[in-house]
Amino acid sequence: MTDNSSPTAASRRSFLRTAAFAGAGLATGAAQAQTPKPDPAITEVPDWTRYLGPGVQNAPYGSPSKFEKHIVRQDVEWLTASRESSVNFTPLHALDGVITPSGLCFERHHSGVAEVDPAKHRLMIHGLVDKSLVFTMEDLKRFPGRINHAYFLECAANSGMEWRGAQLNGCQFTHGMIHNVWYHGLPLKTLLDEAGVKPKGKWLLAEGADSAAMTRSIPMEKALKDCMIAWGMNGEALRPEQGYPLRLVVPGWEGNMWVKWLRRLEVGDEPWEQREETSKYTDLLADGRARRFTWIMDAKSVVTSPSPQAPLVQKGPNVITGIAWSGRGRMQRIDVTIDGGKNWTTARLDGPNMPLSMVRFYLDFDWDGREMLIQSRAMDETGYVQPTKEELRKVRGVNSIYHNNGIQTWLVRSNGETENVEIS
Ligand code: MTE
Ligand code: CO
User: Fold this and answer.
1) Model-level pTM greater than 0.90?
2) 134-153 residue pLDDT tens
3) What number is the average pLDDT over the span 275-295?
4) Cβ 163 under 6 angstroms from ligand 1
5) In testing the pocket of ligand 1, which one of 104, 108, 295 has its CB within 8 Å of the most ligand atoms?
6) Distance, CA 256 to ligand 2 centroid (Å)?
7) How far is Cα 153 from Cα 175, in angstroms, rounded to an integer?
């Protein structure tokens, strides 16, 4: 990256100067010669200082400030035929840190949100086990060995609309089928051990209680390694959209396997070849063959700001920020370029860097108003490096929907407007 993109003491000084003048209501250098016009935001006492605010219990369950009401999940109407079998997207461009607020987690349902009464909900474990078991929610919560983990969940179809070229204008839409929250529950292994998996039991079928009865086959090795059954997220009960009262957590693997409204686990000796692992969630290659059982979500990253919904507004000091994640473990390094990949700078990570969980990166820089091609490139602890879209297409063709982890490019124009583009 060029010299003028790294913050120096001088640039920090000029930042303070700009800030002081902006506070005095001065926009340009020419105006600096005149007497500053008083800024009413400084000279007038606002209503919120004059009057009492609402008391406690005005909002027994709080919600964001009304000034933030535009920060919401959004869908793309033409994508799906109905809203019951559809998806909306996390507003990544407006978020910071690594934890997705529960009310902004993208939703993906095949048959809408099931409204499940926890008192009537049961989890059954059967098949190749020593004893079949049925649990109530109360039974599960009394079980010893409860755990907490933060994991990302990425739909396999995230960025799926971008295989044939840049299409959707906003990281909310290109990358927003992801969320990263804390889960509270039990290791799946605890329950499987209680049931006693027979030696021939090499696969597990997970089934949801929604009217899609979503079903996926999961290899027993993964089920015993780090899967969870979770009834909580971000400190409280799961949200209905996320599978209340119980969901399966399959760390690092494609979102479709994280069965919501989980009601049944069957142990078997081979995969069930359900719709979601045959006609769907397989990857059609250029030669007509399809890859299947591509469960792991490979390392990926995206700059969330600037991005089409979060353009740059001022020259001078600015922050490039984004998120990265890998289904293979911890994130090692994220590099950022502002010149379309000619020069790369390693970004600063801040906040937790937990395996199979999102990390947040920052690059503070001075923008001189030039046009930029911004990209980020993630490398995980296995040494896997996020590929360019071109590299990905060489191997995968353009027929796929799922598992597009190619490097994203944003074109920042000299007026700050930002667009989804591709460079070759
Ligand atoms: N589980 C059930 N029972 N029904 C569903 O439609 N959708 C799956 C998975 N689990 C689904 C489900 C898909 S495709 C994804 S990407 C994730 O849930 C989405 O989880 P979220 O809605 O919490 O974002
Ligand atoms: Co999905």
Assistant:
1) yes
2) 999 999 999 999 999 999 99
3) 91
4) no
5) 108
6) 4
7) 12
